[in-house]
Design a protein that fits this description.
about 45% helix; 10 helices; 6-stranded mixed β-sheet; alpha/beta; single chain; 2-enoyl-CoA Hydratase, Chain A, domain 1
Length: about 250
């Protein structure tokens, strides 16, 4: 298995850990595809009842690896979109444990998960506009539905950091955890879910998502067309170069 994704199966719970700590668990092509492969396979595995998603070494993810944004993109779905589609279509409950920070797609992917535990000291940030980009992950549609129009506009247009407490008050996450305890709390809930009748659980989630899924996929397509154009823009490429130069 791709070592940028660590896989543990225990008592019906599949735990997926983003494992690129040297890059603050930034998501590259291999990691996206590894996550998507595991999520899709879990949906066909009768032994798996719930999924936990987390990041290695007490840090969730710094979002998309910006180096991947500086190379030509393939036609059709990107690796990131394939990953997002796997989340959106999964009938298994998905529980996320967030420590450290969640940035960019590390925030928007949470819209497609069922429960999110975040440590009290977590910082969230969606810096698409400051990077010369635009919303992705169906956030142009879902974010306002989850947190309200005013807050969604604030988070998506300004790209400012916001706290775990603000995320909780906006109903963007399920609960706060003590620092270092988010994974423990997420796994406890996943174990609870895994003990429930699996067919009833998956049917119920499918019903909750039934009318929304076609709209989510349409949003992916709509956003990707614009996002792909923004990636090619001079202002986006200048922003990426500036950011990466600061990291040297």
């Amino acid at each position: 298995m791709n070592q940028t994704v660590l896989v543990v199966k225990n008592n019906g719970v599949l735990t997926l850990t983003i494992n690129r700590p040297e890059r603050r668990n930034a998501l590259d092509v291999a990691t996206y595809l590894g996550l998507a492969e595991q999520i899709l396979a879990a949906g066909q595995d009768k032994e798996i009842r719930a999924i936990v998603l987390t990041g290695a070494e007490n840090y969730f993810t710094a979002g998309n690896d910006l180096k991947d944004f500086q190379v030509p993109r393939p036609e059709g779905d990107s690796a990131g979109i394939k990953f997002l589609r796997s989340l959106a279509d999964c009938d298994l409950p998905i529980v996320v444990a967030v420590e450290g920070s969640a940035i960019g797609i590390g925030v928007t992917l949470l819209q497609h998960c069922d429960f999110v535990y975040a440590a009290e000291n977590v910082t969230f940030k969606i810096p698409f506009v400051p990077l010369g980009l635009c919303p992705e992950g169906a956030s142009s549609m879902l974010m306002a539905q989850i947190v309200g129009s005013r807050r969604a506009t604030d988070w998506l247009l300004r790209g400012r950091p916001f706290s775990a407490q603000e995320a909780l008050e906006a109903d963007f996450i399920t609960a706060l955890s003590k620092p270092g305890q988010a994974l423990h709390d997420a796994q406890a809930l996943a174990n609870e879910l895994a003990a429930l009748p699996p067919q009833a659980l998956q049917t119920s989630k499918r019903m909750l998502k039934h009318s929304l899924r076609p709209k989510v996929h349409a949003a992916f397509d709509y956003e990707w067309a614009h996002f792909n154009e923004r990636l090619k823009s001079d202002e986006a490429q200048a922003a990426f170069a500036s950011f990466l130069n600061k990291k040297k």
